[in-house]
Amino acid sequence: MSGFRSLCKFGIQIVFYIASGAKGMDVLLTFTGFHDPYSKGLIGDEEQPGPILSLVRVKPFDRIVLFSTPNTEKNTDATQEALKGKFTQTEVEVRNLRLEDPTDYLAILRELRLQIQALCEYFTEARFFVAVASGTPQMHACWLLLVAGGELPARILHVRPPRFVTRELPAVSEVDLTAPEFPVVRTSVCWLDLPEVSPPDLETALLQTGIIGDHPSLRKALEKGAAFAAYQKPILIMGETGTGKELFARLIHRLSGRPLDQFVPENCATIKDLAESRLFGHRKGAFTGAVSDRKGLFDQADGGTLFLDELGELPLETQAKFLRVLQDGRIEPVGGQEAHQVDVRIIAATNKDLPQAVKAGEFREDLYYRLRGCEIRLPALRDRKTDIPKIALHVLDRINASLKRPKRLSPDTLKRLQHHPWPGNVRDLEHVIENAAILSRRDILEPEDFELPDLNDTSINKPHVPEPYEGFSLEEYIKQVRTDLITKAGEMAGGNQTRAAKLLGLTPQAIHKFFKARADLNRS
């Protein structure tokens, strides 16, 4: 019994820590440089506070993250000690980056993106600030690109050398990237490492379908979709309303090599009464109103892809006939005498819980298992919050093309959008941005321009809790929550167990023990 209490307590602590920690904090992100923590003055050998200490003396922070490289380890350690000694209320964390060449733009961007992913996932409602005074010029440029492109919703802080400080030019000032003098920067980042798909074709498909993001959960779905695209097996896409299931189906179609114009979409919820006729076609006189032969969707998509959205709404009798087509590729029009062969790739989608529908007798079990062989689950937007700023800027670009006065999003707006739960997912985000851009008279959209529910409403932020039932095991549920959270932390940390332990507030030994036990189990 004591072990059960301990397990429950552990699981509840993790959930509470993740849900409530790190909110409302001011977090400073900065590289360390050779002028940190102190630098020599212009006159004599008197040491002066370096850029980081000068900044923190003017503006306090709850947490400071120092990014260190192999060349600046000593400076980083000394800066951390100086900060801890002078600013005892501030937490100071060091993150070591594998940068052998501190002037390599792509290497800097790659390392920073990995760090930003974990930081934004953990510090869910923090206010991020970036200092561009320490480090190499290439590092400064990468900070600017990441903030301007929306990958990091942060404010840029500039620290002036003492000799340039005047009453009009303070020691610390904010660089407002929304000012009209700055160019508009956009990102179309999507990490994929798929040798079987040529990069130009993949990039073109992503741009043309409008799929934006680099969160690991989206990356996993994209990798599965690209892998399945080369095969002819039917694909089942699961996901909440508004997650972009049709866009995803179009991406798979583009990667499949089938003719681009042979993509036929249909919503099964709109064809319930005439489902068989719409899918398989009909012959003249087959039923009242059938005054001529008509091709069905399978014939229209012959040689290409048929996308059936809301498949869970298909009537049971039609599901049986649909299953036979999946098995032998032959269709028989309503009222027809002979079946004929078609070459159609099926991609089906639904936001229904199909296993539950099978139990309720609303969906055929054999059809479900036929489809689930190639199943892809699209993540909800709230589960990939770091993609929200990039998607928001992409949507605004599209809207601006039709506006006389283009609009921009302030850093506070990006932060507000990033931490909204978005029950309607990407479609919901698009509608909100569109309304704000059309209705607001301002060129720079602020949080008050968006019609969003109160984020403090507990009904919005309340985590999902399953309904107990006879046979439900709280111990097993808590155990599964613990497993899922540690696994997710490991993915966010890129496999770095020490970093994963920090995300969860655990010891590295506990994380190592967890992954070792799972590896031993997989080998047995």
Structure report:
The protein is of the alpha/beta class and about 525 residues long. The protein has four domains: about 20-175, 3-Layer(aba) Sandwich (Rossmann fold); about 200-375, 3-Layer(aba) Sandwich (Rossmann fold); about 380-460, Helicase, Ruva Protein, domain 3; about 475-524, Arc Repressor Mutant, subunit A, CATH 1.10.10. The protein is about 45% helix and about 15% strand. It is built from 20 helices and 17 strands. The strands form five sheets. A six-stranded mixed β-sheet has the order 5-4-1-6-7-8, with helices on both faces. Strands 10-11-14-9-15 form a five-stranded parallel β-sheet. α3 (about 75-85) links the parallel β4 and β5 (about 90-95). α4 packs across α5 (about 135-150) and α18 (about 475-490) crosses α19 (about 495-505). The chain starts with a helix and ends with a helix.
